[in-house]
């Protein structure tokens, strides 16, 4: 019986000012397997099963191949769903890799990024999931999704605070305005460059000047109880950098080795939110 297996990392995106551009791969994984034999999905709640089968259908359609009737899917994932850690992007990439392998279709990384992004709707989580490390996503002159992987090999310690509620990406995108002031765009451009310089030069102390996104965080903060106060607590407790993880509601932070997350967890409790804390390494691939 043919067996196809992929282990796919999660990701955080935006890093504050790098809205829809920056993506960072993290060592929290989804494992997905497909076997030819019987048509079924194992070990999944119905909502996730429906999501998997819907994505599988889209993948077969986008690859212009017939959907087999005898494929058994098994999925084990440690990636929280609806928390801003790219769970849907990881699932799309995993299914796309397996289906293309099962049909002996060779896809380059850029082809994978383009196809997966067309299903996901944006490339900022898809790109680091495929390339690893810190990625910069963009569209070329023909409107095709593309990405480059930065040459940064070392990153400070990272931590993700994951609250006990979910936030749909669609809802989080709806509150972001379609037009912004020129001065706000300029501020974001400067902050994205500060982030890159900080990581390249390992001058992590200058990241504190890049935590004031003007394009999306202020609008999404209204959907997340206590977000501003918890982010402030994380920074006051010594973090180098903190921002929404993707569309939220989780908070991502770069921190020194001796960082204690307990204060931020208790701060969120003041707003009725219980949060788990994940210390994660960057997945370089």
Automatic annotation (TrEMBL):
Report the subcellular localization: Cytoplasm
Which UniProt keyword terms apply here? Answer: Amino-acid biosynthesis, ATP-binding, Cytoplasm, Kinase, Nucleotide-binding, Threonine biosynthesis, Transferase
Pathway listed for it is: Amino-acid biosynthesis; L-threonine biosynthesis; L-threonine from L-aspartate: step 4/5
Principal EC category: transferase
Q: Which GO terms describe its biological process?
A: threonine biosynthetic process
Catalytic reaction equation(s): L-homoserine + ATP = O-phospho-L-homoserine + ADP + H(+)
Q: Which residues form the GHMP kinase C-terminal domain?
A: 212-272
The answer on whether this UniProt entry bears the keyword Kinase reads yes
- So where does ATP get bound? 80-90
Q: Name one GO molecular function term.
A: homoserine kinase activity
One GO cellular component from the entry?
Answer: cytoplasm
Q: Which residues form the GHMP kinase N-terminal domain?
A: 66-133
EC code(s) of this entry: 2.7.1.39
Q: What is any Pfam family matched here?
A: GHMP_kinases_N
Asked whether the UniProt record includes Kinase among its keywords, one would answer yes
Q: Which family does it belong to?
A: Belongs to the GHMP kinase family. Homoserine kinase subfamily.
**Annotated function:** Catalyzes the ATP-dependent phosphorylation of L-homoserine to L-homoserine phosphate.
Q: What is this protein called?
A: Homoserine kinase
